[in-house]
Design a protein that fits this description.
alpha/beta; 37% helix; 13 strands; 7-stranded parallel β-sheet
Amino acid sequence: MILATAFAQAPENWFNKDFSNDGVRGVSTEKTYQELAKGKSTTTVVVAVIDSGVDVEHEDLQGRIWVNAGETPGNGIDDDKNGYVDDIHGWNFLGGKDGRNVNAETLEVTRLYAHYSKIFKDVDASTLSKKEKKKYKIYKECKEVVEKELNGSKAQLAQFEMTEMLYKGALEEARNIAGDEKITKELIEGIDPVGDQNKAIAVRLLSGALEEGLTLDEIEVQLEEQLKGAKSYYEGQASHMYNPEWNPRADIVKDDYSNSYEIGYGNSDVEGPDAGHGTHVAGIIAATRDNDLGMMGVANDVKIMSLRAVPDGDEHDKDIANAIRYAVDNGASVINMSFGKGYSWDKAAVDAAVKYAQKNDVLMIHAAGNSSQDNEVSSNFPNDKFVKKKIRKKKNTAQNWITVGALSWKKGEDMTARFSNYGKTKVDLFAPGVDIYSTVPQETEYASYSGTSMASPVCAGVATMLRSYFPSLTAVQVKKILMSSVVPITEKVKIPGSDEKVDFKDLCVTGGVVNAYNAFKLASKTKGKKKVSKSKPKA
């Protein structure tokens, strides 16, 4: 029976629940383990998490972290001769040999603008060749975006700094008015704010304090938190994301950035300075299910390989390409990619790595993006479309790639996440991605995050389950099973970021939500095409 409860907030563990049993559109993980998987053997699956880093010490990830058996910790030697020294749990492509790490980074549009400015800043466009004019067009487009966003961020930052000064003065005025008296309606009505901006704001603050039952000190704390968050956002935009002069990589990583196929740069610090995002993703896939701690991941026989390649800003194509190759070469069967951007520096290098993963039977799961955009008309990189035209009968699209949109726990027309990107042919399916409770750094900490960044690992967890219970299935077979076994959404839903309603099938290829129960049943009836090695995976 379908439960009719209208949840006021996200139900606990909702992404693992079942719609028919629990009334919420999770992926039926618990139902699968209870009814279909009980007593069945598994094979350990290595999942590469290409992200901001993972806290490998977290309590709920103990026993779930990949260990490079061919490497001796801390001896400064590349024992397994894979090109990376002391890569015990993965690799950090954003680090320096001295142990420092890149955190704040520019956006790709800014890097392209800075690069092409050196070539086209003072050029006469009429003198350019046809090939040069294509690059010049990119330069002009990037220039417009960067200058607009940079100036806008600086203006917003100045506005918030002015607002902060105004409210500080108004808070002082409000305290002077209230004194030791209790804030009452009569006190507020006795104030004449006409012609005095300070008093007018003070009245608003006093009214807010009375209405919410707060003291002025508590109101001040709330204001500081709100202003701090807003200022931090625009400071980041102005100081590094849209700042063409910002280039921490040159000083820290010191790689040859012109060579997308260089390896060995970086360091072995797989956590980095801010592993919140990556640790959250890792928990969704792999947090221990039977330890009575925190939360339960989707997969139950899995090792997480941490590949740090996503900074506070846009990732570099070179790092992503190298991270994919590292994952393939070191035994990963599934790669989760909860990142994306609107421009690409060297898509060909990423495409080559994706083809390498496809050739080696590795499944890739990618987040659709969080801009409420239609990926049919707006670019989102990386993606499954190869930049080079197809040769003879070779397909120009990666067959081992799934793009995932985000679903909310809400019902009816509000079930799509308002931030999620979508696309009738560019997004394959949807998965839970709103208010997902998972692991974050500091060993015993947990938090709820939202994003297609959370939906992607939910799907990756289901894919991992299939590869674990049915190891003879190829990556392409697993993709086909996941897409063929979705729970179709027949209700009209809001287009993300809009109140316009459409059929769910207009938002993604399958018109449905990934489902472990359906996928498991279909997988059990599918003959695998892969020869299963009796040797244990490298973990």
